[in-house]
Amino acid sequence: MDQQHLASVRSPGRFAFRAFTIKQDEASWKVGTDSVLLGAWTQLTPSVKTILDPGAGTGVLSLLMAQRHPAAKIDAVEKDLLTIRELKHNISGSDWSDRIQAVHEDVQVFATSRRHLYDLIICNPPYFAEGQQSATGSQRTLARQGGDFHVWHLPKLCDALLAPAGTLSVVMPASAVSSWIALANAHGYYASRRLDVSHRPGLAPSLTLLQMSRALRSPHLESMALYEEGERSSAYRALCAPYLP
Question: Which residue among 6, 64, 161, 218 is least packed, with the fewest CB closer than 10 Å?
């Protein structure tokens, strides 16, 4: 993911938002455009009281949800030992530490043991199935390629943990969307909102953001370019301005 336009809010090991700072010295995957967009774009309603952030990383989505929804209780689940340390640090240093719980557990184990259902599941998941994982074995590669949890597990996770009227909000490469939507539809989840994101106007989308529910309806379709004439686009600035300096 191209992240040059985020350089002004990043220093080595840290990423500054308006209302909180992410420590990410040891985390295997850093804050990127995909998480910032997903956290800003996801639709929240007053009926959302409980939120699950599976594969929470350093906590950017959990913190954005806490900032945006002052009544929500959030469970942030992260398996990696180094990353969970930074996740807990970032939560404890925020204004919402009383509403975000860091859970050090594999997401799929968590799904089998938890009886509580969530009004919203928000996730920036690893992009590749285990069979597609690189043989390099680096921590950063495995973080994006899936380990034990990846994008193709999300429909099954929703079967276990999403409330009947709940929604799933997810970001993934545009190239994966058609196959993933077919899988989600087979589990009874349908897109209510979709945002296709390209690098510049006229280029094919590289990212797609989806909000899914069990209600079959015509989705609200949007598109956005990250850049216009070499600068952040007006659409991107409007969406992210409340959260980025």
Answer: 218
Closest CA to 56 of 17, 96, 10, 105: 105
Q: How many other CB atoms are there within 10 angstroms of residue 220's CB atom?
A: 12
Strand order in the sheet with 190-198: 100-104, 73-78, 50-54, 118-123, 162-173, 207-213, 190-198, 220-225
pLDDT digits (tens, 9 = 90+) for 164-197: 999 999 999 999 999 999 999 999 999 999 999 9
What distances in angstroms separate CA 32 from CA 1, 95, 155, 171, 188, one per listed residue?
A: 7, 22, 24, 12, 30
Q: What is the pLDDT of residues 118-149, one digit of tens each?
A: 999 999 987 654 344 433 344 344 334 344 67
Residue 190 neighbours by CB under 8 Å, 6+ apart: 184, 212, 213, 214, 215, 216, 217, 219
DSSP structural state of residue 32: -
182: exposed, middle or buried (Cβ count in 10 Å: 0-12, 13-18, 19+): exposed
Say if CB 104 and CB 127 are below 8 A apart. no
Which tokens is 122 given? 């928000």
Separation CA 81–CA 46 (nearest Å): 34
- Count CA within 13 A, CB hemisphere, residue 148: 12
> Quick one: which of 165, 182, 179, 174 has its CA closest to 119?
165
Count CB neighbours of 96 within 10 A. 18
